[in-house]
Amino acid sequence: MMSGPRRVFKNLNLFFKGSSFAGSVLDFTPPKLELETIEHRGGGMETAVDLTMGLKRLDTAFSVVDYSPLLIGSISPLEGAANTFIMRGVAEDWDGTVTPLEITMSGKTKAVDRGTLRAGEKAQLKITMNLTYYSEKVGGELVHEIDVMNMSWINSQGVDMLQGTRSALGL
User: NCBIfam families this protein is in (predicted)?
Assistant: First the structure.
């Protein structure tokens, strides 16, 4: 029996401060999870290896067709003025099985881009953020939970991969 595509991303919705933006979300770029590394080649080594120094910035962006004062007002010059957005999505298997996807993200709204406004055209709004918190669930199961300010990174096995580092630092 032939197997078709698995967990094909089908749809998404955005929630912010209790409001749903169903029917308005155009696109969403989740943060790229990428390790910050430096190259090291010590004496006695044949080649260099990468040493992990942490995680690169967690930046995200999404666009909606909604000239929403709630979203436009999400930007603030104050440090610690974090916003929490929830992006929910749906993936579907070839056999029709539906898997819910949920990304919760908090951080600083860096840009509110309204683009060029034209009479008779959709008003698009793009929000760009730098995150201090990121959680991703697939089918209700945690894949990653990263809390930048509290130095924790919980993986899909429920292990806080930074516990040893925090402990060594007395945190």
Answer: tail_tube
Instruction: Identify the domain containing residue 20 by its residue range.
Output: 8-36+54-141
DSSP state of 20: E
pTM: 0.91
Within a 10 A sphere around the Cβ of 78, how many other Cβ atoms?
A: 7
CA dist 142 → 42, 92, 137, 145, 157 (Å): 38, 18, 4, 7, 8
pLDDT exceeds 80 at position 2: no
Residue 160's contacts (CB-CB under 8 Å, 6 or more residues apart) are: 152, 153, 154
The two tokens of residue 34 are 């990428």
In a domain, 100, yes or no: yes
Please classify residue 165 by burial: count the beta carbons closer than 10 Å to its beta carbon, then call 0-12 exposed, 13-18 middle and 19+ buried.
Answer: middle
| Per-residue CA distances from 103 to 115, 156, 161, 167 (Å) | 26, 14, 20, 28
Sorting pLDDT into bands at 50, 70 and 90, what band is 6? confident
Considering its fold, how many domains does the chain have in total?
1
Residue 1 lies in a domain: no
3-class secondary structure, 63: strand
